[in-house]
Amino acid sequence: MRIACLQFAPKVGDLENNLNRADAVLNRTDPMALDELDLLVLPELAFTGYNFSSLHEITPFLEHAGSGISSLWARTTALKYNCTVSVGYPEMVNLSKKWPTGPEYYNSVIVVNGDGETVANYRKTFLYPTDETWALEGEGFFHEKIPELGSTVMGICMDINPYKFEAPWNAFEFGIHVLKVKANLVIISMAWMTLEEGPIFSRMPQEPDLVSLTYWVQRLEPLIREERDEEITVVFCNRSGIEDDALYCGTSAVIGIKSGEVLVYGILGRGNKELLVVDTDKPPHAKLVQK
């Protein structure tokens, strides 16, 4: 499977320029790399930015599933490259038919296939404190068989953590879900931050943040322990850049988990603004080893 992660640095509330930033990454990518893509993944809240402080602040950027600017971009891009596209966006659900119930708001991901059809819409289940200022919890982790992709699980950033950071570490809610539904593909859109000091962290923009990558893999420990013969492909699509006091750690990666090993097909640096393209039918570049 040919998979691409579009890692870039959107600014909160800067919608038009964020769209241009994403397009610029694609436009400067070698066209040969974009040939015969199966899947293109973008980060969490890709075009709105992430670090909103309230429902009032994010309200101008809320979208209905399938009809907002994120859906339009996904549809246009999916048709252009004849691939499936996944984009994170802030969703508004109109419940006027259930009056007097008001609208609901979710941190969501929409998936559009190569024919421009919406094939999935997932709502984040485990909310980070920033999400809780405006969004509701989704109804549970996603799983569907998506044509061209197979048995697919989707998550958004905090979904891989213990619930509210209060559940036991070894509850592994997300990882166990992946095993239970026997997924072959896991797509995780992220706006993952580092706790390191900005000036120190940003000195090496081309270097992956291996502390964060190791943590993400640790949260999928049940998949490694299972030692399945069939490979599970995991896509971590994170963003880079800074929003106020939030410093994002980039490090988008595509890994495979098979027979207890973690295979690395490709990885970006912490500050990169570029497209990672991998082919999981080819040998991996490395293995991730826990010392």
Folded structure, characterized:
With 291 residues, this protein is an alpha/beta fold. The chain is built from 8 helices and 15 strands. It has helices spanning 15-27, 55-58, 69-81, 129-132, 173-180, 198-201, 210-218, 221-226, and strands at residues 2-7, 39-41, 84-93, 104-112, 118-123, 142-146, 150-156, 185-189, 232-237, 242-243, 246-247, 253-258, 261-267, 274-279, 286-288. It has a 7-stranded mixed sheet with strand order 6-7-8-9-12-13-15. Strands 5-4-3-2-1-14 form a 6-stranded mixed sheet. The protein has a two-stranded antiparallel ribbon with strand order 10-11. A hairpin with a 5-residue loop joins strand 4 (104-112) and strand 5. The radius of gyration is 18 Å and the shape is globular. The model has no long low-confidence stretch (mean pLDDT 95).
Provide keyphrases for this structure.
8 helices; 7-stranded mixed sheet; 291 residues; alpha/beta; 21% helix; 6-stranded mixed sheet
